[in-house]
Amino acid sequence: MNKLGVGRRDKVQQFMTITGASEKVALQALKVCDWSLEGAFDVFYSQSQVKSSADTRRLEELYNRYKDPYSDMILADGISLLCNDIQVDPQDIVMLVLSWHMKAATMCEFSKQEFISGLQSLGIDSLEKLREKLPFMRSEMRDEHKFREIYNFAFSWAKEKGQKSLALDTAIGMWQLLFAEKQWPLVDHWCQFLQARHNKAISRDTWSQLLEFARNVDPALSNYDAEGAWPYLIDEFVEYLTENNIVQIGQMSDWSQKC
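The chain above was modelled as a monomer; its predicted structure follows.
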């Protein structure tokens, strides 16, 4: 490793710290991915030996620690205890990423299958391993493809059972959480607009299209196409921004470069 430049040595050390892998494994994974840390993480964690290394018996013990005493599920109290054990706030976005890995159907609930299969897929069978994996899960939010998957997952995960739409207050909370990671400058204005003008549940179409709007339309609206096929709510939001002089058309932002 002494022959490597400082930047590459740092990546090897970071990879080893987060994954617990040997220097040889770290070098192999990073070389395969042209020294992309996130790509190397994907390669490492997709290996079958990582999945099989999770001890099923220990996973059962973990599940039993958190499951509700009256139902075969982990519910809000169990998740609160889990968060306490791994020293994260229940509102931390890493819990959304963990739920995505578990393919959880509902917020604040894990079935036994979701919990065990999700941790197994991450090669986790102890609280120590889960704590060690938190930096990797946070890093996944910086991957554009994974962010989109997690964003779309969040809609079904956060809505009430049996409902087609997402309650407005819940949607606003999720947007503030998600876009805090991606730094969309208009997120607060969007939430204020919804509370002032909409005050209704959010459809899946609006949820999905807002991400496209945030990704593709400059915050200064310099490339906004009024004839585009945006949901009416997004068109009304643009009118709200211009009517209230929140956006001065033509002022470019470097947000798109940041993302």
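The beta strands are 73-74, 110-111.
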